[in-house]
Design goal:
This is EF-hand domain-containing protein. The radius of gyration is 49 Å and the shape is elongated. The strands form two sheets. An eleven-stranded parallel sheet has the order 1-2-3-4-5-6-7-8-9-10-11, with no helix packed on it. Strands 12-13 form a two-stranded antiparallel sheet. The protein has 20 helices and 13 strands. By secondary structure, the protein is an alpha/beta fold. Helix 11 (265-277) packs parallel to helix 12 (292-305) and helix 13 (321-331) runs parallel beside helix 14 (348-360). The relative contact order is 0.04. The longest helix has 21 residues, at 22-42. 47% of the residues lie in helices and 8% in strands. It starts with a helix and ends in a 14-residue tail after the last helix.
Length: 511
């Protein structure tokens, strides 16, 4: 009955595809025969079994098992073709970029391109080498601190750095010292504004001048940095006039370094006014500029009005004693400053004394460190500083040492004054003695000798008169006779003829 149901039915059609390997066919045929033998033993003769047998016989004829997907080959597969995996590290891309640009790959970069901190100082990259690195750094997510100091990048290299920073949002600390970036100051400032991940940027020694200060002033108005270093550049008085108002408006910078520039006069005063109204900055370095008296006035005003600043460095700024006294007045009203550095200024010990006097006038002074490096102080300063220590016991002081007290001058021999009178009036010794010996006894008492000195207008102190009388009265009888005066005069002339040897000849040489 089952056979009659499928007697007139057409054979099952099988789609022909690429035939699999011979080993697969043999295994499939053996599997089919084993299945049929098991069904025959069990006596299974249902309609579904007949259909399966027909399909199996047809597939065996073709050598393909249509139920086994692993036995099928497609036109899209090519077992002989190998597909190289993509290099996610970026090393291959960097090497290919170096080949394209014609530069030698930097092995140090290849070894450390996945470190959190990459130090590429002094590698001589140049503009082309920076372009090769820039392309790879765009997609780098590992490096957080990047130092490219002293690589002679120039304008083209600086633009490559800007291009990289527009895409890389992981770098937080960037150092670009000594790279001649003056001509790309505008692009650099615009890029730093776009990159919100940067927090600390150092741009020392790049030749930024008053023209570049225009772009940095605009940048400071809306920047998000916490630290900016523009030291060792060429920022002058005009730059100070631009940067001062920008510093006043900035609300993110915690630390600013403008040391080793040419900020002076009105520019220095503008910087001081900007610091006065800043509400965020904790530390500012203004050392090695030319502030002078005008800059000192600005700093004094800043210390008087600022209630946030904790450290200021105004070392080597041509600040004289007058300027130091003015800064002291500002310090006497400040309650937040912890570190004051004023070393290498020509304010002398008097200027240091003025600062200490201001501290004594401020009971709420918060100073912890006071630096007067290379300034020699005297005993007056030591005395007032002892009072400061009583007020602030933990205050640390640094100065250039205490002045060595000058040795008292050796007393002048009173015989010099006597002989000077004799030479001036062209007198003989006997004529000179006769001015004392009124009675012609050829001997004078102490009182007669003193009176004669007064009559001749020879001014001697009591100590000098006593020393002279003691020296002339050789026999100690209380009187001076003519012979004793002659002997004393001869001894004085002999001493005068002795050669004078400089004391410095006997001092040991020191380095």
């Amino acid at each position: 009955m089952a056979f009659s149901m499928y007697a007139n039915k057409e054979p099952v059609k099988v789609r022909r595809r690429t035939i699999s390997r011979a080993s697969s066919r043999r295994s499939q045929v053996n599997s089919s025969q084993s299945k049929q033998s098991k069904q025959a033993e069990r006596g299974q003769s249902s309609c579904s079994d007949s259909e399966d047998d027909a399909r199996t016989r047809d597939s065996d004829a073709q050598g393909v098992d249509i139920n086994d997907e692993k036995a099928w080959d497609t036109d899209l597969e090519n077992e002989d073709e190998s597909h190289p995996s993509y290099d996610h590290s970026g090393r291959t891309a960097y090497i290919q970029a170096c080949k394209k640009l014609g530069v030698v790959p930097v092995s140090y970069f290849l070894r450390h391109m996945h470190d959190q901190e990459l130090n590429m100082k002094h590698h001589g990259l140049g503009a082309t080498g920076m372009q090769a690195i820039s392309g790879v750094m765009m997609g780098n997510t590992k490096i957080l601190t990047l130092d490219l100091s002293d690589n002679w990048l120039g304008m083209e290299g600086g633009l490559a750095v800007c291009e990289m920073l527009r895409e890389n949002c992981f770098i937080t600390t960037l150092t670009l010292n000594d790279n001649r970036l003056n001509h790309c100051a505008k692009e650099l400032c615009q890029t730093m504004l776009m990159n919100s991940s940067l927090q600390r940027v150092t741009l020392a020694g790049n030749g930024f001048d008053d023209k570049a200060a225009v772009h940095f002033a605009e940048f400071l108005l809306t920047c998000h940095l916490e630290y900016l270093n523009l030291s060792h550049n060429d920022l002058g008085e005009a730059a100070g006039l631009l940067l001062g108002p920008a510093i006043s408006e900035n609300s993110t910078l915690k630390e600013l370094d403008l040391s080793w520039n040419q900020l002076r006069r009105k520019g220095a005063m503008a910087i001081g006014i900007g610091v006065k109204t800043n509400v965020k900055m904790k530390k500012i370095n203004l050392s090695w500029n030319g502030f002078g008296l005008e800059g000192a006035i600005g700093i004094a005003d800043a210390l008087k009005g600022n209630s946030v600043l904790e450290e200021i460095d105004i070392s080597n700024n041509r600040i004289m004693t007058e300027g130091a006294v003015l800064i002291g007045k500002g310090l006497s009203a400040n309650e937040t400053l912890k570190v004051l550095k004023m070393g290498k200024n020509p304010m002398q010990s008097a200027g240091c004394w003025g600062i200490c006097a201001a501290i004594l006038r401020n009971p709420n002074c918060a100073l912890q460190e006071l630096d007067f490096e290379n300034i020699t102080v005297n005993r007056d300063f030591d005395e007032i500083y002892k009072q400061v220590q009583e007020q602030i016991p933990d205050l640390k002081l640094r100065h250039g040492g205490t002045e060595i007290p000058l040795k008292p001058r050796p007393p002048v021999d009173p015989m010099n004054k006597l002989m000077a009178y004799v030479d001036k009036h062209n007198l003989r010794i006997v004529d000179f003695f006769n001015k004392f010996d009124k009675d012609g006894s050829m001997s004078v008492s102490y009182d007669e000798f003193k009176q004669g000195l007064q009559d001749m207008g020879i001014s001697l102190t009591e100590e000098e008169v006593h020393a002279m009388l003691t020296e002339l009265d050789r026999d100690g009888d209380g009187e001076i006779n003519y012979s004793e005066l002659v002997i004393g005069h001869a001894d004085f002339q002999e001493k005068s003829r002795e050669p004078k040897v400089s004391v410095s000849l006997f001092r040991p040489m020191t380095s």
